[in-house]
Specification:
313 residues, alpha+beta, Phosphorylase Kinase, domain 1, Aminoglycoside 3'-phosphotransferase, Chain: A, domain 2, six-stranded antiparallel beta sheet, three-stranded antiparallel beta sheet, 47% helix
């Protein structure tokens, strides 16, 4: 969600800096700039729309945290996302990074991508199969072109971190720990190599402009991750959305199967992905559970997350 918050005119320090940085992209150097703030977000995130210029940028201020995490290295977070975007844009369409500035509240400026999010297509289901195909192919290109070593330990450490955030009762946490132990000792999560993963592969982070997909928000992206992680997060989002908004998570199954099939290189690859997927779908459902702790839907998410881990075989 975004809301209009202000209009900036010549003489405003940040507006004038943007106009200078953007150079020939802004023809009228004296144009007013309308500001729209997005929420919720982990930091202050605003769209700066240059009036009559048909041009906008997104500014993320890492020096202005809005989430629960208040203490972190803002400079490191800013440069990390900038570098992640530069890396990813070699292989897929992203909101291209333009500039970062430590003196302006650790701001990262990227291009603004207008269009419809994947979430919008989930709401109507019109063209959803086609849009999922595009995202599947995009993720495949990112994963295939960023080979590196594989950090299995970090995948499990992150899973435990998400469980820690849920403050589960002792018996429930123990059951999750036991199931995770079985996955750790299996070969399903083992890989010969890792890759760059988006890590926040949620429907709102994929925008379609004239039918072409763009990926947004690489703040939490990892190198040396498990490729199936991105697939599991996306599939958990599909299942959760259909359960919460369309009567049953089972109605998402055809879309999930379609998405995985178009990601896979072969039938063998499809079966491997399908067997590994429950681990990361469980993680995705638990991520969503953090947002529903005071609502009945929370119990559904915990139950489904545990059922996914029981699918170990």
């Amino acid at each position: 969600m975004k809301n209009y918050v202000n209009t900036l005119y010549p003489g405003d320090c940040f507006r004038d800096w943007l106009v200078w940085i953007l150079g020939d992209r802004i023809h009228n150097k004296n144009c007013a700039v309308d500001v729209f703030k997005y929420s919720p977000s982990s930091h202050t995130v605003c769209r700066y729309k240059f009036r009559d210029e048909h041009y906008s940028v997104i500014a993320k201020f890492f020096g202005e945290p809005c989430g629960k995490m208040k203490r972190y290295n803002a400079y490191e977070a800013m440069t990390n996302e900038f570098n992640n975007l530069k890396r990813a844009e070699q292989f897929i369409n992203v909101a291209r990074p333009i500039v970062m500035n430590s003196d302006m509240n650790y701001v990262l400026v990227t291009e603004y991508i207008s269009g419809k999010s994947l979430f919008t297509y989930m709401e109507s289901e019109r063209h959803l199969y086609d849009r999922l195909t595009s995202v599947a192919h995009m993720l495949r290109r990112l994963h295939d072109n960023t080979d590196g070593y594989y950090n299995k330990e970090r995948e499990f450490a992150n899973f435990h971190h998400v469980l820690d955030q849920l403050h589960l009762n002792h018996s429930t946490r123990q059951r999750f720990n036991e199931l995770l132990g079985k996955w750790w000792n299996s070969s399903l999560i083992d890989r010969y190599s890792g890759c760059m993963v988006h890590r926040d592969a949620t429907p709102c982070n994929y925008i379609f402009r004239h039918g072409v997909p763009y990926a947004l928000d690489f703040e939490s992206s990892w190198e040396n991750g498990n490729a199936v992680r991105d697939l599991g997060i996306m599939c958990s989002e599909l299942k959760n959305y259909f359960e919460f908004n369309k009567g049953s998570g089972n109605n998402a199954e055809p879309y999930i199967g379609h998405f995985l099939w178009h990601y896979s290189r072969s039938e063998e690859d499809f079966h491997y992905v399908s067997r590994t997927l429950p681990f990361f779908m469980s993680l995705g459902l638990l991520r969503s559970a953090r947002l529903h702790r005071r609502y009945p839907h929370y119990n559904y998410l915990l139950k489904e997350a545990m059922e996914c881990l029981k699918a170990y075989r």
